[in-house]
Amino acid sequence: MDIINRGDYILTDTEILDYIAEIIERLKLNPDTMSSGQFNIVLEAVNHKYFKYNDILSHDVTSSIDDNIIYNILQLYIYLCRLFNKSISIKGFSSLSGIDYLIIESWKGENINSNKYKIAKIINDYREDYIKDKLLDSNNIVGAIAVANHEYKWTQPTTEGHTTINILSGSELPGVLQSLNNKGLAVPLPDNVSNNPLTVIDKS
Known about the structure:
- This protein is globular.
- The chain has 204 residues and is mainly alpha-helical.
- The chain has two domains: 2-137, no CATH class; 141-201, no CATH class.
- The protein has helices at 13-26, 36-51, 67-83, 90-97, 101-106, 115-137, 141-152, 173-182; strands spanning 2-6, 9-12, 165-168, 198-201.
- α1 (13-26) packs across α2 (36-51), α2 (36-51) runs parallel beside α4 (90-97) and α3 crosses α4 (90-97).
């Protein structure tokens, strides 16, 4: 895939991936156990080599950057996060693209039909999916309840905007977890679950 294709300048994802492999080898990183900090170093190295000093990506006037180029960089970022099993985030995309974090955040407030809004929404949606997958893969009861809270709105903000707190008693948990199982979210039930009431806090 071409990340940038402007006249006599073409930058492909293959070239960037080859450079990433070179960085990993040079820094003696293990792709399977790479920390989030090390992953960000890789992203920043790619930015420094290909985007930071590229006139096509003049971040001083972000609105002038071709939305298609931003989208292509985002596709590359999502692929890298999946490849190295890292969380997708606005800050991570900022590290790769060089576009200021606050500028990307501001795109959430643009018209819903604008390309910038759609790019910000893609990042947010992929991040939520990653978090849900990680919680479900963890076989963690608290994590599963957090997923259910997100998916099925167990807790809701009050009209005053304060956080609501729902107390789930031990006797309620089996029914809740059975409901998750029925929806395809298999959750193991500890033997001592009846002795472990949980407090679920919605901070949205």
